[in-house]
Amino acid sequence: MYVCLCQGVTDGQIREAIYEGCCSYREVREATGVATQCGKCACVAKQVVRDTLSDI
Ligand code: FES
Question: How high is the ipTM of this complex?
Answer without folding.
Answer: 0.98
